[in-house]
Amino acid sequence: MKLTTITNVSVDGVMQGLGLADEDRRGGFERGGWALPLVDEETMTRLGEVYGRADAFLFGRRTYEIFAASWGAMADPQDNPVAAPLHARPKYVVSKTLTDPGWAHTTVLAGDPAAAVRELKERMPGELQVHGSGQLVRRLAAEGLIDEMLLLTYPVIVGQGTRLFPADGPDGALELVDSRATPGGVTWQVYRPAGRPRYATEVPPRTS
């Protein structure tokens, strides 16, 4: 099974609180809702296509609860290109404390997340998508379990908040396989892991 991560980030790499002002105030974050004003029609159309191709979804607990309270609470999800696949297809949530998820077709993965995801990838066909879920994405990246990364970068500098990747973490090279921009300035980059980065090993001679 192909594992794809889909992450909305600002130009300075922030992924926290992109939707609503009070979506995620951890750490004193006060700049929530930075992405929604920049979402244009083409972005929503493409996102609908991305969600529509998923065979299953994987979440960390916090993102799962945000999605369940919004997309999961829609009265007529079948009429929405994002909500329809979220409702109909299997959902897996990594959590050691969630015991009774209210969203249909949800399975809680309470054990080691890396082992659980490896097992899913081995026994299921299709595409497993991870939306948001920064802590989980960082763990999956460190374990080499991500096959493709889709980054939606919004033309804004948030200036505070949780970044996609930590200031000190494992490195990795990426292969850019697709890149495009919407009329509203949201850029889409699709990357595949490409092993370790290459670092310069020689210092060029000084010219003066």
From TrEMBL:
Which InterPro entries does the record match to this protein?
DHFR-like_dom_sf, RibDG_C, Riboflavin_Biosynth_HTPR
Show the stretches that span the lipid bilayer.
none
Top-level division of the source organism's lineage: Bacteria
- List the PANTHER family: BIFUNCTIONAL DEAMINASE-REDUCTASE DOMAIN PROTEIN, DIHYDROFOLATE REDUCTASE FAMILY PROTEIN (AFU_ORTHOLOGUE AFUA_8G06820)
A single Pfam family it belongs to is RibD_C
The Bacterial bifunctional deaminase-reductase C-terminal domain, residue ranges: 7-186
The protein's name is: Dihydrofolate reductase family protein
Q: Which organism is it from?
A: Streptomyces griseoincarnatus
